[in-house]
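Section 5.1 Outputs to date
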Amino acid sequence: MNFFRINCIALFITVVGQYALLAQDSIPISLNDAVASALQKNTDIISAEYGVQSSEFALKEAKGNFLPKLMLAANYNRNIDRQVLFLPEAFGGGGGPAELGFANDYQSSLNLSVPIYANANFVNKRLAETRLDSQNEMTRGTRLLIANAVKKAYFNFLIAQEVVNTQQSRLANAEQTVTDIEKRLRQGTLTDYDLTSAKVQVATAKNSLLEARSNLVPFENMLKLLTGIDDGATLKLTEPIELIEEELVLDEDVSKIIQRNSRLKQLEIDVALNQEQVKMAKSPFYPTLDAIGNYNYVAQADDFRISEYDWINTSLVGLQLRFTIFNGTVTKNKVEQAKIGKKIAEEVKRHTTKEYRMQHKELLSKLEFSKQKVAVQKENMELTLEALVLVNKRYRFGVGTFLEVNDAELANTQARLGWLQAISDYKAAYYDYRLLIGEE
């Protein structure tokens, strides 16, 4: 008896554990949750944020050019053939070469350089700042693109699930009709033709259901990939399939595109970046001035008795001015290339602005059309459902025919699928509209 109780308890724990595991794997997720997960875990966004960090370090690197540079150097030379000096007889020489130095040469130096003025340093700093602005805007644009993709993937998966439910309902009704016809066939009120036709409708409904189910896995995988959710989890979408109030309110002010659209802001920064490139190309036209300092500690000898060496200290401070007089027109040609790059950036920005203005107008028209289509399809769905109820009543009372029921069932299914497609079209257009005006 005790052994039986122990087995029952063990079985109960196992079953409860399996159900708990399934409950953990089934993740209820709203649209906002999906977007938040993607913004936190999506690979493209993480990579873009790393790009921002890299640009921040590049800016610190550019600022480092304004700081002093202190370098320590040490070297040892073994003079195989020593340097010589030719002294004329007037200076006490015999006219031949006189060797200089010793076999072992030791040198150590400490060099200090402080930039006082360098046009390239200032331009390089502005370039790094502009690149950081560009990377920040690219990251914002990536977030907008991912949010857009997640919202579309979410509703694609949600509507695919509803299509499966619709086809399952259609199949259940078709199977119920077959059962009913079989009863009436035994009673002699219907024929074999009616039964065969009903079975054909069951087969058609099964095929439609299989096709609908085949779309679930790709849509679910796309949503998981975008949101960074574990591929072994089961998603339970909690959003209703409907148009909410805020999705019906549209701003027709096209100036918002210029102000908020991420791509246009990136192109605007590209123009500024190319302007800084022109200035960078011109920087060799300007002189550079540095304050320098040098401290040397040297010794020479023919032996290796280092402790007996005479170590000599030398030091200096000064200013170093450099100015390029002629470099073979290299700088001039670099400037012209940079100017062309700026013109290209301006032309791309102008064309893209025009394109987005037209796209804004097109999306507003598409949204208005889709909104009307949703309303028409909803009305059609309600009418076909009412017709289906009436036909079923007629059929139960023996007044209607199987073909009428089948036609009404098919019309209702098509109306619901049309309504789902209209919802999907509106949602996709609305999310593209939000992306265009630079809002998540």
